[in-house]
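Cross-check.
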Amino acid sequence: MNVVIPPKRRDRKTSFKKLVSYVSTREENRHSEAVVKPDGVYPPSGEEYVATPGFGQLVDYVGRKRVAPKTQIVSISPEGIQRVLCGEVLCETNCFSLDTAAAEMNMTAMQNPRCKDAVYHFILSWQQDEDPTPDAIFASVRYSLQSLGMKEHQYVAAIHRDTDNVHCHISANRVHPTTFRAQNMWNDADTLQKCCRVLERDLGFKVDNGSWHMDEYGDLHRTHHDMPSAPRGAARREIFSDRESLYGYAVREVRQGISLACEQSRLDWPWLHKLLYTRGLGLREQHGGLAVYDLFNPDGVSVKASDVHPAISLPAMTHRCGGFQAAPPVCNPDRLEDGMLGMYNNYLPQLHVRDQDIRRERREARAIAREILRARFEAYRAGWEKPDLRVRARFQQISSHCIVMKAHVRDTVRDPLLRKLMYRVAEFEKMKAMAELRLQLREERSALSDAGLSRPLSWKRWVEKEALRGDVAALSQLRGWTYRQKRRARQQKNDWPEPNAVIHYEPGEDAPTFITREHETRLLHDGTVSYLLDGKPAVTDFGDRVGCTRQSGRPLQQRFGCRVNRVAKWRQCGGEG
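Predicted model, tokenized:
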């Protein structure tokens, strides 16, 4: 048993047309989901513009709903969960009906405008030789939703048996139908993987591979792929001399590439020789096996090929590709104009190295500490209670005091005019006390807000607060966020290079959107309009300036120059014409 979480858009605006385009089997879109494009915006040829419908198309797919399949209610549980046979697909939902499930989910999601993407979709799949019963499948669905904290959330589950593997699609609403709070799906992949291991044990499914495994005692552990340990000499060199060994260099440079080639069935003798050559390494037969050596020091130390990666041992390569083949020439002497194979890196034994095992242990320790930190935060959120200022009781106390004063006046004062005057004094004292109480409550609420006690802290604010207290895991989490921001900044700099030519305009001018069929127009959150060609920015309109990014090739530069002129004319016309 395993789980699949289909990828979604990162801007939290899931396009269901794209979400189900690779799995949808419907022949046409529903009329209620088609919209008209605004004037001046033309979709690419052969495409239809479809609005993001919420849960409609996803529910249609998981229920295999095409034209109008007949639905038949099979059973209804006391909790209101009903099973519906939609054509040949057996579905289960806790909504009022399968036909209204999408509308109910959309209406519930609209109650939480802060949740930009309320759809959650995952798939539970079983091995080919397994045929679980519907009761077992739907029990797995309910257990998975409960583990995700979505026990009471709306969902639609459908069993599909039209492939080699029996699988079940689950589309759930992240927004709670009663409290209208959006469920946090942090670490959902690990949660679902743990659910699979527990269900395999409880319901008797076959154990499948995953990121977590269960030992004989029922404890869950993260799965680690087995690789041969470092040779003793290489480990001693790196530990005692702080110098990188040939083994460590070879593992760092070629192990991942060899693993990827094995998965893609591209590993053979010429490919392996070329990969090693580009890293300054060679492969030869030695002592009845294969050895990896340094091309610049062939008489020096060598490393067993099986220690670098088990797939390039002599028996494994012989079984895969036949007998040993020598390295091919790096260039063709008869065609020198074709060039030669380049060497991009080489082994330098004088370089310092950090112990990889220690780094791995520290990384695992940080991961465990952050999991504990997240659990502490969830416990804080679950146990948080809003400070009770006793507002109603304090106002009632003032009102009661006024009532007592009036009763005392009524018993002691006999003159009607004087009694009426004393009543007015009591009312005045009551109004004065209530006004003072309102000012006091305002100050108390302001103090709670300044102290961050008026509402539960967010994940980031809570981590910052724990870091100020000296929590090691919180400090590690803050450093991790900082490193992530730096990586994103580098990636953004690579994706959006600095313009080579800039045209300046008056500050404060708005940037109108210029749309043609020749390029892709992208509007950013800050109002910047970028015109992309082949997925890369060519001309960017910032409002007060227009920048052009240089590209290789004279024809492209001519086209970009024309684009800059067209954008400039469009700006001068104010976006008209």
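Residues 15-53, 552-560 have pLDDT under 50 and may be disordered. The first helix runs from residue 16 to 19. Passed to J.P. for a second look.
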